[in-house]
Design brief:
Blueprint (H helix, E strand, L loop, with lengths): L1 H50 L35 E3 L2 E2 L2 E2 L4 H7 L5 E8 L2 E6 L6 E7 L1 H4 L7 E8 L5 E2 L9 H7 L5 E5 L7 E5 L9 E7 L4 E8 L11
Parallel strand pairs: 1-8
Antiparallel strand pairs: 1-2, 2-3, 4-5, 5-6, 6-7, 7-12, 9-10, 10-11, 11-12
């Protein structure tokens, strides 16, 4: 009898142990499932917040503050383009500069096609631009410095001739201005006066820059003795050619 009772007790204890173990395993599985579901819900919530985020208030979003306009690109003005409002300087007009070879000048012309208006010869000829820039001619000669470089076109802008009253110099000089007006626009010591080659009454009023870096450039105003009839700017010696490429 005692042996049977002991066996029953052992079986009972084993059964209880198994029941406890099964219960424990069930609890662990249930907790794991709950944690997984909780994590999944949190992930879904984060995604939805990302998709439906309300605009940040100015106090939390520095980017909402007004941006400075100091860093904005300054638009090009008409005077910097190759058109009827471009101004002549000692070394160029608008974006086209003396010393540029033909490809460089064509690129700077910003869509204004350059074409040969006076053939002259291989070492000297004139270009003009299509579009708004009428009465403006570009003398082209051989640039010695570019000629020494390989794969570089040596035909380069040497001077710019102006034959219309719409174009002015940077100082405001233009065709139709009196000699007195021209002299008033420039320092007296920087204006040379020479007798015109073909008009005994006319003159060449030549502006000579005082800066050492600009000493190879000139602005030449041709007059009939009273008013400016044409003017040009460029480098020596080409700017001094009375007959251009002839």
């Amino acid at each position: 009898m005692n042996i049977k009772i002991k066996k029953r007790k052992m079986l009972f204890l084993v059964a209880i142990g198994l029941a406890v173990a099964i219960f424990t395993i069930g609890v662990v599985i249930a907790q794991t499932r709950m944690h997984t579901q909780s994590t999944g819900n949190t992930s879904t919530s984060v995604e939805s917040v990302g998709q439906n985020t309300a605009p940040e208030t100015p106090s939390t979003n520095l980017n909402s503050q007004p941006q400075s306009t100091d860093t904005k690109t300054v638009p090009e003005t008409p005077k910097t383009k190759l058109n009827s409002q471009a101004q002549l300087s000692i070394n160029g007009i608008g974006p086209v500069k003396v010393g540029m070879n033909i490809p460089e000048a064509a690129a700077a012309a910003q869509g204004n096609r350059l074409y040969v208006s006076y053939a002259g010869n291989d070492s000297c000829y004139y270009l003009e631009a299509e579009g708004q820039l009428k009465g403006v001619s570009f003398m082209v000669t051989k640039d010695e410095e570019k000629a020494r470089q390989q794969n570089i076109t040596s035909d380069a802008i040497a001077r710019i001739d102006i034959n219309v009253p719409e174009i002015t110099t940077v100082s405001g000089a233009k065709i139709g201005d009196t000699e007195e007006k021209i002299k008033s626009l420039y320092p007296p010591e920087q204006i040379e006066v020479k007798t015109h080659e073909y008009n005994p009454k006319g003159h060449y009023l030549i502006f000579v820059p005082k800066e050492q870096t600009d000493n190879k450039y000139r602005v030449v105003f041709e007059t009939d003795g009273k008013e400016v009839t044409s003017f040009r700017a460029g480098k020596l010696p080409e700017v001094g050619y009375v007959e251009g490429c002839s």
